[in-house]
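HUMAN: Forgive my ignorance: could you write out one protein's sequence and backbone structure tokens?

ASSISTANT:
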Amino acid sequence: MRKLGVLFCLILSIFLLANVEDNFIEARKNQDVELIKVLISQLENTDNYLLFAESLMEYALWGAGEDEDKEALYEKALEYAKKAIEKEPENGRAYYVAGAIIGRLAQYKGIVKSLFMLGDFDKYTKKAIELTDDKFYKALSLLAMGMRYRDVPWPLCNYKKSEEYLLKALEILPNYPNIHLEMGKLYEKWGKKELAIKEYELVLKEPPHPLLLETDKQAKEEASELLEKLK
């Protein structure tokens, strides 16, 4: 009887974990603020550090109000991403989340301090690329590295390296139009106007990635604006 009770608890915990993960995917897909708030509340006192960190990161990115301290949200998210890595040191997704949070935090730290954060960003993001077999998170990690080499100031930027990372991301995740958006921005910075136009047009033509519907809407709006300026 006791064994049956333990088995029931195990099955229940697996079911609840899967349900929380499904709700996270749904919240991110539609940028559902209320759902992500519920998830954060559910996860805060659990040992699911990774999903808690990723939920906080997403909330800070698109859910937090103007009066909320987004920097503090990212700081807390990074704390739990590091806990997730300690708990599961071979989990590539955890390294991606840590790197992505550092990339967001750098926006609040000023030029000098943000440049010092590059080492940590590179360490976590490259480790994510190395470890993860999940195509979605591997592509996001490659995309992040491509943006990193594009956006840091001279002489740290490297447009060729940026292009290499972005093309690898596109190879792994060809149905994610945001990669074309970031490639367009790269080519525009690089002075390759015709290639930039081609990439922006692809953003408008391609169907959305099924896991990122709201992100796709925003990408299409931005691509349309950028395209109008170039033509």
